[in-house]
Amino acid sequence: MFDIKEQLKILPDRPGVYIMKNLDLDVIYVGKAISLRNRVRQYFQSGKNQGSKVRAMVANINSFEYIVTDSELEALILECNLIKKYRPKYNVLLRDDKTYPYIKVTLNEAYPRVIKTRRVLKDKGKYFGPYTNIGALNQTLEIIHQLYPIRDCKKNIDRMIERKERPCLNYHIKKCMGPCTGEGKKDEYNRMVEEIITILNGKENQLIKTLETKMKEAAREMDFEKAASFRDQLLALENTFEKQKVVTDLKVDQDVIAMATEGEINCGVVFFIREGKLIHREPFTFMANEGESREELLTAFIKQFYNNMDYIPKEILLEEILDEEELLQEWLSDKRGSKVQLRVPQRGDKKQLMEMAKKNATTTLMQLKIARKTATGGERKELVELQELLGLDEMPIRIESYDISNISGLQSVGSMIVFEDGKAKYSDYRRFKIKTISGPNDYGSLEEILERRFSRGLLETQQLLSGEISMTEGKFLQFPDLIMVDGGFGQVTSVKKVLDTLSINIPVCGMIKDDKHKTRGIAYEGEEIILDKRTPLFRLIFKIQEEVHRFALAYHKTLRKKTMLQSELEEIKGIGEARRKALMKHFGEIQKIKTATLEDLLKVEGMNKKAAESIINFYQESSQKEEITDLEGVKTGDE
Fold first, then answer.
1. 629 pLDDT band (50/70/90 cuts)?
2. In whole angstroms, what is the distance from residue 202 CA to residue 569 CA?
3. pLDDT tens for residues 258-314?
4. Does 210 map to a domain?
5. Per-residue b/e over 181-211, b at no fewer than 16 CB within 10 Å?
6. 17 is in which domain, residue-wise?
7. Fewest CB within 10 angstroms: 47, 318, 496, 499, which?
8. How far apart are CA 291 and CA 92, in angstroms?
């Protein structure tokens, strides 16, 4: 048993990180300290001077751990990583950065690709982001692929060259250089990748100068085709970046951070300024507890925001001075590899930039408040969050969810449930018996029920347009805004396969469970998104996943029970398949057959007196056996 008083006595007077846990051993807070002894003991002293947040946290602490470090800087780095890992309840939390997409240059591959991803891995890839604006990210990727013929396939290049496989269509239409052809253009390919990284770092002016030089050199060498190629790239680059606003005459790289808070709603805005141009603006929301000061919020924001950033500028402008300013500067400088300064602007261009960022933060806060106010009855909040999380064009008002249930592949059934405006719509629930798949094949079963559901929906749409049916007569007319399937990437792939075959475009995501079979996150676009358990969205996803599983299981149990009861009739002499069907058709259920009289049984089609008496005798004998078993149970004391 963990004795807090005894553990407090042996705390070292050293820098480090402390980890607070509750009764269930969940991490509820992570903090750093110059002296673990002094800092951790403060929590368990008199609570008179403690805020409500600290008092609530201390009341839930059942044990704690600590990790000693060599310096406060090491403690800060470890604190950032542990907060990211555990997402503790009582820490200020930037909305999970795993939910925001990044642009990744796959430098870990021989011929790198430029792709969108939601996972930042410890590989040799170079990451840019995160992007809260999905449209801006997609536009950036589109520009890059227009400018540079780099590959976007996942194929093994060496294997393709070895097998002499034919290149894809992109090569023939000159959208890909075709490294799979083995024509030895590695140096040229790498040059393009370097230029792409330059663009993503906001250094397009440097690239433009390089291209101008190369264009002139090619023209002097009479290589007009290459010169024209450089000219086209220059025009495209200048057209793309001329819209960027010049905000300072100084050719500097800066980030400008402003914050707006009101109650539990907290918004941060970061302006990315590269070589004096405002190239990007990113708004962020983050969760905090009651009583958090602006300084605590801003410090926590900086730690979590820059913990994953690949590029850090020389200068970061802030609204106010922070107590941990020197430590943060040391940490950021270490990450960058050269000096980084945190500054509070007082006058001139920098002051104007800060005012502009503040206005943007305030506007973002107002928009967020309006979105929450619009969310009626608290139900649409989850849908707003889900739309933002997945980057959907429209709010997913209607969500359909699917699940498969079977025992070792026997009597497989599928279920479809519907949630509208965040609430279950029971009238639209549907059940499916699996007809074409045998054995334990969840993927095949899922494909079958999706094909039946949407083929029927398309047919009913045609019938509605031709006037054959009305809206109320169509059981599958309405298509969902989002499909959620109980499972991971395999199930998502199966659903997409059916939709692609039917030329239906509906977003699909999987609902992933952890080792304890509890909802953990969402599988979407090849990435796993971990959900924060404290959010309304998590509660909605949990509700959908539990409901679709319950509905599938209930249907499976009903069929299994019915089959087991029907099998009783097979044990009765003189009752063949034809009479079994006639009995079930006449009575509807086994229980009525058990209690039927001779006269009732003789009314069944194809039944004679001998067969009817056989049924009565069978159930009378079964009843007597049950009574004897019950009596024996009483004698032996069984319950």
1. very low
2. 78
3. 988 876 677 888 888 877 777 777 778 776 666 678 888 889 889 988 887 767 889
4. no
5. beeeeeeebeebbebbbbbbbbbbbebbeeb
6. 4-91
7. 47
8. 11
Q: Are both 575 and 512 inside the same structural domain?
A: no
Of 374, 395, 420, which one is at a domain's C-terminal end?
Answer: 374
Within 13 Å, how many C-alpha atoms sit on residue 162's CB side?
Answer: 5
| CATH number assigned to the domain comprising residue 530 | 3.30.420.340
**How many folded domains does the chain comprise?**
5
Please give the DSSP secondary-structure letter assigned to residue 97.
G
CA dist., res. 586 & res. 599, Å (int)? 13
107/181 same-domain check = yes
Write phi, then psi, for 423 (nearest 5 degrees).
-125, 150
Judgement on whether residues 151 and 56 belong to the same structural domain of the protein:
no
- Give the E-state strand segments of 294-421 in sequence order: 315-317, 341-343, 398-407, 410-420
Strands 482-486 and 508-513: parallel
Beta-carbon contacts of 6 under 8 Å, excluding residues fewer than 6 positions away, are: none
Secondary structure of residue 60 in the 3-state scheme: coil
| 3-class secondary structure, 277 | strand
322 shares its domain with 400: no
Rounded-to-integer distance, Cα 128 and Cα 103, Å = 5
Q: What is the pTM (predicted TM-score) of this model? A: 0.50
Lowest mean pLDDT among 92-96, 227-231, 268-272, 619-623: 92-96
Q: What is the DSSP string of 494-556?
A: HHHHHHHHTT----EEEEEE-TTS-EEEEEETTEEEEPPTTSHHHHHHHHHHHHHHHHHHHHH
- Domain presence at residue 525: yes
CA–CA gap between residue 450 and residue 461 (Å, rounded): 16
Between CA 625 and CA 31 the distance in angstroms is 68
336 in the same domain as 453 = no
Bridge partners of 405, per DSSP, are 413
Query: What contacts 453, CB < 8 A, 6 or more positions away?
Result: 416, 430, 432, 476
pLDDT of the residue at 565: 46
The letter for the amino acid at 555 is Y
pLDDT at residue 17, as a whole number: 94
Average pLDDT of span 25-37: 91
The H or E element containing residue 233 is helix 224-241
* Amino acid (1-letter code) at residue 200: L
Tokens of 519: 């909802």
3-state secondary structure of 286: strand
Q: What is the CATH number of the domain that holds 27?
A: 3.40.1440.10
Contact 292, 92 (CB under 8 A): yes
Residue 143 and residue 240: Cα distance in Å, rounded?
8
Edge to edge, what strands does the sheet with 126-128 contain? 114-117, 102-105, 126-128
Cα distances (angstroms) measured from residue 176 to each of 183, 224, 526: 13, 21, 23
Token representation of residue 469: 């049916």
Please report whether residue 238 resides in a domain.
no
Please give the C-alpha separations between residue 33 and each of 17, 332, 452, in angstroms, as whole numbers. 6, 18, 60
**Residue 179: how many other CB atoms lie within 10 Å:** 22
Is 382 part of any domain?
A: no
Of 374, 409, 436, which residue sits at a domain end?
A: 374
C-alpha distance from residue 433 to each of 89, 402, 588 (Å): 44, 13, 19
Torsion of the alpha carbons at 26, 27, 29 and 35, rounded to the nearest 10:
130
**Does one domain contain both 321 and 278?**
yes
584 and 537 within one domain: no
Question: In this structure, what token pair is assigned to residue 77?
Answer: 């780095």
Q: Are both 470 and 357 inside the same structural domain?
A: no
